[in-house]
């Protein structure tokens, strides 16, 4: 049986492009006791993969050259010599960009039990993106009914979930996205009360117009000029969750920007870094809530599905160029 | 009876100097029903007074030209037609730079009941400075035993209280101050485990040496380059309380500095603006704790006392030039 992998062949500096990857076939080894074989169906494409491919300190060590690109993926167990996993189990985990994975369970995130939902959701709304939105908004941002919630990359996999959860709990939602397609998605697909096109509008003026009482919660996926504009419109007691910094490509040396201290002081606001892995003991709560809202049709999901391993080569680039129109997935099975 | 006032005669831009004030004598009016007369003994000199004198938006409107300079002060009730205040009561409040005040109670902060402690303490450790240190450290910074706590303007009225309260609850304390006199004060008077002279040392290197496990809590009174250095050494889950921004004199337009977002994200740290007025319903708790520690000799207080109204003219300048060696007070009675 063949395992088709996309390996990291060259070390990128910044966003990897197709020249940094190679498609390779290898044989699937026999299972030892305590192992099981997964036939992978979907690979995830996430902003964090840029950092994983680069040789810079991060939450985790960089991917070794020659290894399959690290990524979240979902698949089905097709053979097992492991007591905890049976044929037919659907599992999600850091399986990497490969079609077949022999696992001892260490790289498994969870068994996906919501088999009535599309399996690829386990990589987005029912995975890292949805749980990040859930805890980032409800815990870190401490959003509550009546709050005005501003979201950057508002049509993205995390942002669209943040906006919709905020709406479900009774917030007023304002999405910031780039271009007419994504801002229309914000309004029509994700139910934002207002959408701002940062490529066409003055963000500070647009925020002032959309948030007459100021910004209570800012779920920040970008940093940079968009965030600088939002920070000028904080309401008293505002909470800013820093979930991502997509607008800044280089952090060494530290880039300069407007100092936020006085804005935080005058508004008695708080700005907080958020990483979902700090909430790993409470994920079941998020999965249950998200699955419920999905089944009730209260959360819309947009996926952008690429077909086959070769399509992965430029996928991280697509993400950083903002060309995807939904959660970016590579379908491989 | 004469009331000697120091009035704001000219509008400063930035730090006021003696040319902006005038000493003036006026007659004390008779008491109406519901009023009482305070003979003021001590005026406070605080960093916030710079903002109060300038014509810029702030927490409160600027002092009107011709009015006594707004300040906290403490004194004794010497006549009363108010049912809530009796002759002999000691009161603290926003009484302004004047020797006699007719009050209806609206500008009174509290009755000072700890009459065994020096009365001037009501303007510092038993007033705004001590309560700011108490709630800023214990609530906003959420300091707990074992934490490494870094304090800027560590020998100042707020900073010295922060350092000592942190030590009392079992933290390791590192003070940052300017010059050998203040750093010695940090070690000898206020019990810091380490003191850093930002005028003579590389702050980032000194923090790294003094905080081998990183900074859990940073009580920031300065902003600017000192804070930029501390931010490079955050421990996981660090809490930064922004209490003051003394190192930055101009906020319009916003000054540039290193972006803090990635540091907050990687450390899952939080940065929060703090103002004591948000805790006004809980001040009694802080007064009780602080008075207890003072009586047990566990908190040392350093005051820098100027004599007489004329000494107030340059007092705010002294504070901003860093010339005071303790909580700056003007004794007028």
Pick out its properties:
2 domains; 24% helix; alpha/beta; 333 residues; Quinone Oxidoreductase, Chain A, domain 1; homodimer; 16 strands
Descriptive report:
The structure is a homodimer of 333-residue chains. Chain A is of the alpha/beta class. Chain A has nine helices and 16 strands. Chain A has helices at residues 48-53, 128-140, 157-168, 180-188, 203-210, 224-230, 261-267, 283-295, 315-320, and strands at residues 2-8, 21-27, 36-44, 73-80, 90-93, 100-103, 108-111, 148-152, 172-177, 194-197, 215-220, 234-242, 256-258, 270-273, 303-307, 327-331. In chain A, strands 3, 4, 5, 6, 7, 15 and 16 form a seven-stranded mixed beta sheet that branches. Chain A has a six-stranded parallel beta sheet with strand order 10-9-8-11-12-14, with helices on both faces. The longest helix of chain A has 13 residues, at 128-140. The first copy, chain A, starts with a strand and ends with a strand. Chain A binds chain B through residues 59, 220, 223, 227, 242-245, 248, 251, 254-275, 278, and chain B through 59, 220, 223, 227, 242-245, 248, 251, 254-275, 278. Strand 14 (270-273) of chain A pairs antiparallel with strand 14 of chain B, so a sheet runs across the interface.
């Amino acid at each position: 049986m063949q395992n088709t992998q996309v390996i990291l062949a060259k070390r990128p500096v910044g966003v990897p492009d197709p020249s940094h990857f190679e498609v390779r076939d290898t044989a699937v080894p026999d299972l030892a006791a305590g192992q099981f074989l997964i036939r992978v169906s979907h690979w995830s494409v996430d902003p964090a993969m840029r950092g994983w491919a680069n040789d810079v300190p991060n939450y985790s060590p960089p991917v070794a050259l020659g290894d399959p690109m690290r990524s979240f993926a979902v698949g089905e167990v097709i053979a097992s010599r492991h007591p905890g996993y049976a044929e037919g189990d659907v599992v999600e985990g850091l399986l990497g960009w490969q079609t077949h994975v022999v696992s001892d369970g260490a790289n498994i995130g969870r068994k996906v039990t919501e088999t009535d939902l599309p399996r690829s959701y386990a990589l987005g709304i029912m995975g890292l993106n949805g749980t990040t939105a859930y805890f980032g908004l409800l815990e870190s941002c401490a959003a509550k009914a009546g709050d005005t919630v501003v979201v950057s990359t508002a049509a993205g996999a995390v942002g669209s979930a943040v906006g919709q959860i905020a709406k479900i709990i009774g917030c007023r939602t304002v999405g910031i996205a780039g271009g007419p397609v994504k801002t229309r998605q914000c309004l029509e697909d994700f139910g934002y009360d207002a959408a701002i096109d940062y490529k066409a509008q003055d963000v500070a003026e647009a925020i002032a117009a959309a948030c007459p009482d100021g910004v209570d919660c800012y779920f920040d996926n970008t940093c940079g000029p968009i965030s600088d504009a939002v920070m000028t419109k904080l309401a008293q007691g505002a909470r800013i969750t820093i979930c991502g910094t997509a607008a800044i490509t280089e952090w060494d040396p530290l880039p300069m920007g407007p100092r936020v201290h006085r804005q935080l002081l005058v508004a008695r606001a708080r700005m907080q870094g958020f990483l979902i892995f700090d909430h790993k003991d409470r994920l079941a709560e998020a999965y249950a809530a998200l699955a419920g809202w999905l089944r009730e049709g209260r959360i819309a999901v947009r996926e952008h599905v690429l077909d086959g391993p070769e399509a992965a080569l430029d996928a991280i680039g697509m993400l950083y160029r903002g060309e995807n129109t939904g959660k970016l997935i590579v379908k491989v099975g």
